[in-house]
Amino acid sequence: MGSDLKATVELPLFQGISDQDRAALLGCLKTYSRSYKKGEYIHLEQDHVQDVGIVCSGLVHMLKEDVWGHLTLLSYMGPGELFGETSALCREQASHVSFLAAAETEVLFLPLDHVLTPCKKQCDFHTTVAKNLCTMLGENNLRLMEKIEIAAKSSLKEKILAFLSIQTQRQGSKYITVPLNRTEMASFLHANRSAMTRALSEMQADGLIEFDGNTFVLK
Known about the structure:
This protein is of the alpha+beta class. The protein has helices at residues 2-7, 19-28, 85-90, 112-116, 124-151, 156-171, 182-188, 193-205; strands at residues 32-36, 41-43, 51-57, 60-65, 71-77, 82-83, 98-101, 105-111, 175-177, 209-212, 215-218. The strands form 3 sheets. Strands 1-8-3-6 form a 4-stranded antiparallel beta sheet. A 4-stranded antiparallel beta sheet has the order 2-7-4-5. α5 (124-151) runs antiparallel to α6 (156-171). The chain is globular and about 60 Å long. The termini are far apart. The relative contact order is 0.14. The model has no long low-confidence stretch (mean pLDDT 87).
C-alpha cells in the first residue's frame, strides 16, 4: 500500500483528496500497482480488460495489429493519463488493442466496479475520485478528436503540422518535446518513415519548423 500511495501523489485522479483520505481510498477501491520493463506488454488484444490503468511513470503505447501483422500506434499515454477504460466499460469483450510499455513504466490499476458502485461507507472522497475519473474520460475523448483532426488532413506535411500544433497547445510552448522516435511518430501519423523523414527535412528547409532530435519548434 505504501508504494501505491507514493505513486499517486501527482495523479489527476486524486486531485482534491488529502494524503490521509487517499490512503483509505486506495484500500476502498482495491487498487494495485505493477511495474513493466520497456517493450513488455501490459494487455494483448484478446485480453478481457476489467481494470482501468493509470500511468504513474513511463510511457504506454496503444497498438493495433491488422491481419497481416502490421502494428499501428493509435495513441500514447504518459504520467497521469489513463488507458483501458473503453474495454473495462464494455465488459466481457476482448480489448481489440494492445498496450505496451514503451519505457520503464509503473501503472496503478483501478477496478472500475469499485468506482461505479456506491461506497457503503459513503466516503466523500469516493465521490471526488469518481468525478475526477469522468473528467479524465472526457480528456481521452478530446485526444481521440485530436487524432481524427490529424487523420483528416490531406497531405503528410499537413498531418505533421497538425500533430505539432496540438503538441504546442498541450505543452504551452513553441518549443516542444515529442515522446516518440521517428518510427513511432510515423506509425502514429499512419505514414511511411522515410517519407515522413523527407517531409520533415523539406519543412525545415522551407522555414516551417526547426527540429533537433525529438525537440521541435513551430515557426
